[in-house]
Every structure is written in structure tokens, then in C-alpha cells.
Design a protein that fits this description.
alpha/beta, FAD/NAD(P)-binding domain, Enolase-like, domain 1, 3 domains, five-stranded parallel beta sheet, 7 helices, binds flavin-adenine dinucleotide
Length: 428
């Protein structure tokens, strides 16, 4: 009888949770360990700057449920500090080591800090976790001065909308010409109008030159000569992959964990990555590896990474989704499908629906409060974007897959050595 195997999932976010579920759905019966540095089970992170921030939801309201019995060993409030891939060992604080047969890296991203910002001032915050939302709430409660958010992307705009819905004054500061500028002129004009109608301040095309902190407030001198006085400042200027713990492990860390098209990490054996941290070539678009920082992608990628880890590298299937994301602001639902950020040009497809074109090809769409039309256009886009390399067919039932044992349960297909270099460049 062979020894029990152990799959470790590093990162207890949505990608990690959905990967764990998929392993069990496929009949993986051996040990499963989930390591997460936050003190709680995976939760609905999009609620952080909306319902948790407003107080409409408490932290346990946003906990995600599992669709199957995970029978996992949870190591919450525990940070993975180092990976030794050649020994298949993860280091935890206090000298503890966890051995693995297969590893799923799903450690997400961490908010980017702004050089020069007084980052130790409790009124200057980032917003990624439930604890961050609680800290922002405390800063807001301590002062009736306005809030300021630096960054006019999705997280910044959503924060501003939450502030206005909570009856707080807020100003968005961004160096782009308009909020959500990367989603094209139609969306950014509509977003400008929406925030203006709700009396959120917009200081666009500028940046912070100096910070002045006093007991009463945080002052921000902007490059356009304006002075903002705030009781709370949120930095929403993007994020960086949470890969510090992977340095020196042999994984290729280039803006995230570099993976092949089927999510196997380059450079080591039996490690896959999923969610915001993973950078992989989506063959539906091209062979350039990129990261996608959206919820639905993290869900689908977690599941795909689990399937491929069990199947083994040689039978793995490229992960080639049509990415889909949404943003809720005030009562408006903004939807993004495909890769709008790759667009070189835009076209109006229908009222409120913008198409993004690259080399004469539709590669993304954005909808402004048009959920029905977006369903239709999502189907259309999916048809127009076939996966370039045909996916290898692999049954998902535990009975017939490559990783299935004679008892019908899945075990890992172990890889002797990793594929060196950038496998997809040679068509691998
Ligand atoms: C405020 C906010 C609002 C958002 N709203 C939307 C939205 O409206 N729509 C949308 O599509 N997307 C939204 N997103 C993006 C979406 O939430 C993410 O794409 C998704 O959560 C990514 O999931 P993940 O599992 O890859 O990473 P995460 O959810 O970040 O989970 C990773 C987990 O790993 C932990 N971790 C990191 N390093 C270690 C370590 N060394 N050891 C152990 N654990 C570690 C992290 O603390 C975290 O708990 C939002 C994101 C934020 C921050």
C-alpha cells in the first residue's frame, strides 16, 4: 500500500478554496492542507470596499461556503515563509516544515504602497482585506473630515461610491485623465458623469506632491496646486503579486508566478499556480503571459489548476477562458469581458456596450449597466475568439483520467523534472 499523498494549497482566498473543492470533486482522497495568513476562512473579497466597509455586512456574512466537504487541514493565521521546491517542503514560522507531493500557489496580490505616503499613519490605509476595511471604518469614525482615495481604477472608484452612499465627502485623485481610463472613452466619460452627479470630487491628471500630517487631519498638496484636507486617505494604486516567500525557490517570478498555458509553474515540478498571483499565456488571445486580477477568473483558474495538477503535466489542458469581471458602483453595474486592456481601438456595439479591437479583431467588451446585451455579446466574443491551440481532451471523471487509480480515486501524476524554460514558446 502506498503512503498517503499530500497536496498543499498556499493562500486561503477564493482561488485556493475553489482549487480545494475541485480536488475533492475529482476524487482526490488523500491529505489536503490549506495555508492562509489571514485569520479567517476564504471570503468574498469584492465585498471589502462595499458591504464590509459600509457596515452592511459583518465579516462572517461574507465567508464563502464550500460546495463539497473539503476535509482539509486549515492552517489559518499562518504565513508560508519559504518554498524549497527541490525538497518539496514549505517553511512556516517557528521552524515548521510541511512536505507536499503537489502544491497550488494561490497567494494573490498585496496592495502597492505609494512612495512618500506616511504609511505608518493610521489614517492612511490600503483596502484589500476585511481587517483593512475595519481599519478604514475606524479612521472614518474618528473624524468627520472628507475621505480621499488615491487611484481612479476599479477599487478607487468603488471606494468613492461607497463613501457617497455612506454620506461622506470624498475626492478621487488620479494621474489618468479620467476614472477607469483604461476601459475606453465611453466608460470613463460615463464614470466621470456618475461620480460628478453623486457629488464625489474628482482631481484627475494630477498626483500628490507633499503630505502634511497634523493631529486633526492629513493634508495632500497636489501637483495641480490644490490642497485636500482629509480624515482618512485610501491608497488604491494597484497591487503587486504576493511572491516574497517564493524567492530563491526556483520558480520564475516575473510579475507573479510564471506558468505555462496549463498553469504549471515554470522551473519546478508539481507546482501549479492560480488566481491573481499567476501569470500565464491565455492561448485564446496570444502567447504572452499575463495576470488577471478578477474574481471569476480566480474561481475558474483555481478549479483548472487543481484539475491539471491531478492530471499531470503531460495530460494537462491549457487554461484559456474568456475573462469576465464586474464592478458595482452606486446602482450601476459595469461589466468587462475578454481583454479590453489590449484594445488599440474602440467601437460602439450597442447602446452602453463598447467593443475593443486589436488588429481588426474584437478582443474585449465593456458594458455600462447593460447585463442582457452583455450576455449576448459575451457569447459572440467567445465564438470569435477560438482557442488557438486545441485543448487536449481529458475526461474529468475520476474513473478514466490519467490520474485515476484502480479504485477510481485520483492521485497525483508525479513529474520527475519540470519543463525548463518557457514551454509555450516552443509550442509545448
Ligand atoms: C477591495 C477589492 C474589491 C474587488 N472587487 C472586485 C469586483 O467587484 N469584481 C471582480 O471581478 N473582482 C474584484 N476584486 C478582485 C478579486 O477580489 C480578486 O481577483 C480575487 O480575490 C483573487 O483571488 P485570489 O484567491 O487569487 O487572491 P486573494 O483573494 O488575494 O487570496 C490570497 C490569499 O492568500 C494569502 N496569502 C498571501 N501570501 C501568503 C503567504 N505567504 N502565506 C499564506 N497566505 C498568504 C492572502 O492574505 C489572501 O488571503 C476586488 C479586489 C479587492 C481588493
Amino acid at each position: 500500500m502506498s503512503e498517503a499523498e499530500r497536496i498543499v494549497i498556499a493562500g486561503a482566498g477564493v482561488a485556493g478554496l475553489r482549487a480545494a473543492e475541485r480536488l475533492r470533486e475529482l476524487g482526490y482522497e488523500d491529505e489536503l492542507v490549506i495555508i492562509g495568513d489571514e485569520p479567517r476562512r476564504p471570503y468574498h473579497r469584492p465585498a471589502v470596499n462595499k458591504h464590509v466597509l459600509s457596515g452592511a455586512a459583518r465579516s462572517h456574512d461574507v465567508t464563502l461556503s464550500s460546495y463539497v466537504d473539503l476535509d482539509a487541514r486549515w492552517r489559518l493565521g499562518t504565513r508560508a515563509t519559504r518554498l524549497e521546491a527541490d525538497r518539496r517542503v514549505i517553511h512556516l514560522p517557528g521552524g515548521e516544515e510541511i512536505r507536499y507531493d503537489g502544491l497550488i500557489v494561490a497567494t494573490g496580490v498585496v496592495p502597492r504602497h505609494l512612495p512618500g505616503a506616511p504609511r505608518h499613519d493610521p489614517r492612511v490605509r490600503v483596502l484589500r482585506t476585511v481587517d483593512d476595511a475595519h481599519a478604514v471604518r475606524r479612521a472614518l469614525a474618528a473624524s468627520d473630515k472628507p475621505a480621499v482615495v488615491i487611484g481612479s481604477g476599479l477599487v478607487g472608484c468603488e471606494f468613492a461610491a461607497s463613501m457617497r452612499q455612506m454620506g461622506r465627502d470624498v475626492t478621487v485623485v488620479g494621474h489618468a485623465r479620467a476614472p477607469l481610463y483604461r476601459f475606453g472613452p465611453n466608460i470613463s466619460a460615463a464614470m466621470t458623469d456618475l461620480h460628478t452627479r453623486h457629488r464625489a470630487g474628482l482631481e484627475m491628471g494630477t498626483e500628490v506632491r507633499h503630505w502634511i500630517t497634523t493631529r486633526e487631519s492629513v493634508g495632500l498638496h497636489l501637483a495641480n496646486s490644490k490642497l485636500l484636507v482629509a480624515g482618512c486617505v485610501v491608497l488604491a494604486i494597484g497591487s503587486v503579486p504576493a511572491v516574497d516567500w517564493l524567492r530563491g525557490s526556483g520558480l520564475v517570478l516575473e510579475d507573479g508566478v510564471l506558468c505555462d498555458a496549463s498553469l504549471f509553474a515554470i522551473g519546478v515540478a508539481d507546482v501549479v499556480a492560480a488566481g491573481d498571483v499567476a501569470r500565464w499565456p491565455n492561448l485564446r488571445f496570444d502567447e504572452v503571459p499575463r495576470r488577471v486580477e478578477h474574481w471569476i477568473n480566480a474561481v475558474e483558474m483555481g478549479r483548472a489548476a487543481a484539475e491539471n495538477l491531478l492530471a499531470g503535466r503531460s495530460s494537462a489542458t491549457p487554461f484559456a477562458p474568456v475573462p469576465r469581471a464586474w464592478s458595482g458602483q452606486y446602482q450601476v453595474r459595469v461589466q468587462m469581458v475578454g481583454m479590453p486592456s489590449l484594445g488599440e481601438d474602440t467601437v460602439t456595439l450597442a447602446e452602453g456596450v463598447t467593443g475593443f479591437i486589436r488588429s481588426g479583431r474584437l478582443i474585449g467588451i465593456c458594458g455600462w449597466d447593460r447585463p442582457r446585451e452583455m450576455l449576448k455579446w459575451t457569447e459572440e466574443l467567445t465564438e470569435r475568439l477560438p482557442v488557438r491551440t486545441p485543448a487536449k481532451r481529458r475526461p474529468l471523471s475520476p474513473v478514466a483520467g490519467e490520474g485515476a487509480s484502480s479504485t477510481g480515486t485520483y492521485r497525483l501524476v508525479r513529474t520527475a523534472a519540470s519543463t525548463p524554460g518557457h514551454a509555450w514558446l516552443s509550442g509545448g
